[in-house]
Amino acid sequence: MRHKKKQNRMHRPKTMAQEADRHELYQRAVQSPDADVEFFTDRFEQLRNRPALRLREDFCGTALLATTWCMSDPERTAVGVDLDGATLGWGRERNIDPVREELGDRLELIEGDVREAEAAPVDITCAMNFSYCVFTTREALRGYFEAARRGLKEDGIFIAELYGGTEAIDILEEERELDGFTYVWDQERYNPLDHSTTCHIHFDFDDGSRIEKAFTYEWRLWTIPELRELLLEAGFADVRVFWEEVEADEDDDEDDEDAMMSGTGEYVEVTELDENQESWLVYLVALA
Q: Which are the contacts of 231, defined by CB distance < 8 A and separation ≥ 6?
C-alpha cells in the first residue's frame, strides 16, 4: 500500500504554477519594450536633433529591452548591466540566442554593479521598472546618478521610470487578467517615516495554483522633486517630466467622479499639475 501511494504521488501532474517560468511571466505582464524603444527614439531626436544609436540598460534583468533596442535598427548597439548572473543567463538563452544571427555582437551583457560597470559611452542610459529604488539613501542614489552621467556621451540622456499617487502609499493588492494567468501586484508594507516599501509580484493560474512572491522588492519610494534634485546634483543640466495620460475605463461613465482611470501609454511633458491621481507613472528624462 505504501508503495502504491508513493507511485500515485510520483505521477501526480504538475500544477500550472509549477510548469510556468517566472521570468517569462514577468516579461509578459510588466514589460513593454516596443513602447519604451519608441519613447526613447522620439524623445532623443526631439531633444538632441539626431538619432540615438547606443543604449545602456541598467538593472537589465533578462535584457529584453536591450535586445529589442538592437533589433529595432541594424545600426543600434546596446549594453545591459545587472548583478544577477542567473537572470542574465536566462536572457541570453531566451531573448538573445534566438536572434543571434541577426543581432551579431551588437549587444554586450555585464554582470556587475551598475555604479562600477564600464562600457563605451552611450546615447541613452535607462533604469526601468523603478529598479534604482533599491538605493534608499540620497548618497547612494546620487552615486548611481553620477555613474550614469559619466557613462553618457556629451549630449546623452538618462531615462528612469517612477510611479506614485495616493494609492502608492497604501497597503493593497491589484490584479490584472492576462492570457493564461493573473498578475498580482502586492504592496505589503509602506513606512511614511522613510518611504520604505515592500512589494511582491504573485502569479495566479486557472487551476488554483500560484507562484507566491515570484519577485520581491525592498525599495524607497522616491518623489519627483527628490529625484530632480539628485539628478541635478549629480551633474545633469536639466530634468524633464513626461506624464502618462489617463482616461476613464470603457465600462465607466466619464462624468462619474468614482470612475476608474487607466493609463493610455501616451506620455506628455508637464511642468505643473493641478491635482494628484490615485496612480500615476512618469518618465524622468535627464539631459547631460
A: 145, 158, 239, 284, 286
